[in-house]
Hints:
The structure is a single chain. This protein is of the alpha/beta class. The chain has a single domain, classed as P-loop containing nucleotide triphosphate hydrolases (Rossmann fold, 3-Layer(aba) Sandwich), CATH 3.40.50.300. It has helices at 48-55, 78-88, 104-114, 120-132, 148-160, 178-193, 205-208; strands at residues 4-17, 20-33, 37-41, 63-68, 71-72, 89-92, 166-170, 198-201, 213-218, 221-228, 234-237. The strands form 2 sheets. It has a 7-stranded mixed beta sheet, with helices on both faces. A 4-stranded antiparallel beta sheet has the order 2-1-4-5, with helices on one face. Helix 3 (104-114) packs across helix 4 (120-132), helix 4 (120-132) packs across helix 5 (148-160) and helix 5 (148-160) runs parallel beside helix 6 (178-193). The protein is globular. The protein starts with a strand and ends in a 21-residue tail after the last strand. The model is unreliable at 236-258 (pLDDT under 50).
Amino acid sequence: MSDMAARLRDVTREYVLKGETVRALRGITLDIPTGDYVAIMGASGSGKSTMLNLLGCLDRPSAGLIHLGSDNVSELDDDSLSEIRATRIGFVFQAYNLIPQLTVLENIEVPLFYQKNLKSNVRKRCVELANLVGLGDRLKHRPTQLSGGQQQRVAIARSLVNDPYFILADEPTGNLDSITTEEILNLFDNLNGEGRTIILVTHEDEVGSRAKRIIRLRDGEVEQDWRKEAGAAFSHQRPDEVVHWDTEQPEGMDEISN
Length: 258
């Protein structure tokens, strides 16, 4: 696997709405190393949904390059993008997106079904993933028999089934109470601790603060790129200048160049 889960170079995305050009992203350059845990944050209209769509191969950039792992996805056709989505990206959605007629195990298997890859050894892996997220005793339950947190655990297990470049989570705790949110975030912490790359899109500061790194967008640009060292507070750097601290910089803080 590549040392970089995702690499963006001078990525721009423009739309024409009612005869006017809207610049949703304006020359974004980012590296997301394999094993990183990144929260993409920003106010409404900042560009985070556009970034999500590009990283998820749901859209193409107007200009610039995007590499996911070893794949240059910037100019792939629809069929190739669909293949990347199905095999190399693990999606986790706010609304879980489980199929109500299927069991927990069958929902985890859904990506494999579309690839016609339901061999016995692969199905065994799905059981292992259910155990990993704490649902090994609920394999035959259907979504309506599960709590919201349990449904999101199924979605997380499903996202891992193809050993993706990264998990792409869109407001994954948005429908959950505070206690269940903590459980899901603990699961993400554990997965990242095992080496999984997580890219989390959220507007909640408490959720974003669990990541190792926060990329905050504003008006389609990277306003701040913050990195948290183990046991330390976040450090940050603007894409065009190093932030100068009014007081002595706390120990353990690293500046990130874009």
